[in-house]
């Protein structure tokens, strides 16, 4: 299907002790922050998959553990890859993971996903059958979403769920989005700040909402379950494209009268 699928060798022996030290620092800080903030299935999978805290995981060995749970594997890539190749991998239960880690001077924030964001942020939920089925469906829909304008609807869906999604649980709102789960500051902000709005997930609302990539989000969408993501994308997505084409996009801090706002029981 594609002559180059952008996969490379992880080149494990190329990591320096500095690389592993950066991984360990990032892991230890985030593991503490995510207690009672990340979704329980995220935290459980971190242990269940035995994702190492001291050294950068070996992709092949981690894939062997992951594959036993949901059939997913991770493949090494040099960084962001073209949308169609990305969709192709997801539709085949392969998650592309950047093989390099951020340099010390970019410890706090890096715009492009590195191995910490991709493994620590994305891999745990690949072990969840409902979420990983949604992600595979997302890949399949992406391959069929011909036309540039449909791609940006899909990019927004990915952004407000896979990267910055929140989920309602009996103990309150929890993080499942990787962009939040790999960010110390946003992990607190998304649940406790009164600045952002939190809206119940609705597929068409998300697909019409723009996003900004290098600031904390001003809107978060809240799902009730991963099955909800799969069911809505499976039943509604393709019919929405022609409808959304005639609608105006929303800037991130829009509030519509039809929005179901989710209140946080945060500190006043
Ligand atoms: N490539 N490696 C990598 N990782 C991503 O998360 C990624 C990508 N290419 C495209 C992309 N994400 C987004 O455009 C998705 O919305 C498809
Ligand atoms: Fe990501």
How is this structure best described in words?
The chain contains 11 helices and 6 strands. The protein is α/β, with parallel strands linked by helices and 268 residues long. The strands form 2 sheets. It has a 4-stranded mixed beta sheet with strand order 4-3-6-5, with helices on both faces. Helix 4 links the parallel strand 1 and strand 2. Helix 6 runs parallel beside helix 11.
What is shown here, in short?
The protein is of the alpha/beta class and 268 residues long. The protein has helices at residues 17-33, 40-48, 59-70, 83-91, 115-126, 129-144, 148-163, 178-181, 184-192, 203-207, 226-245; strands at residues 73-77, 94-98, 166-169, 172-175, 197-200, 219-223.
List the helices and strands and how they pair.
Blueprint: H1 17-33, H2 40-48, H3 59-70, E1 73-77, H4 83-91, E2 94-98, H5 115-126, H6 129-144, H7 148-163, E3 166-169, E4 172-175, H8 178-181, H9 184-192, E5 197-200, H10 203-207, E6 219-223, H11 226-245
Parallel strand pairs: 1-2, 3-6, 5-6
Antiparallel strand pairs: 3-4
Helix pairs in contact: 2-5, 4-6, 6-11
The chain binds 7,8-dihydrobiopterin and fe (iii) ion.
Cα distance spanning the termini: 54 Å
What small molecules does the structure contain? 7,8-dihydrobiopterin, fe (iii) ion
H/E topology pattern: HHHEHEHHHEEHHEHEH
Overall outline: globular
**Unreliable parts:** none
| Spatial strand order of the main sheet | 4-3-6-5
Could you report the average pLDDT, rounded to the nearest whole number? 96
| Range of helix content | 40-55%
Number of helices, where a helix is a run of at least 4 consecutive DSSP H or I residues: 11
| Proportion of beta-strand residues | 5-15%
State the oligomer: single chain
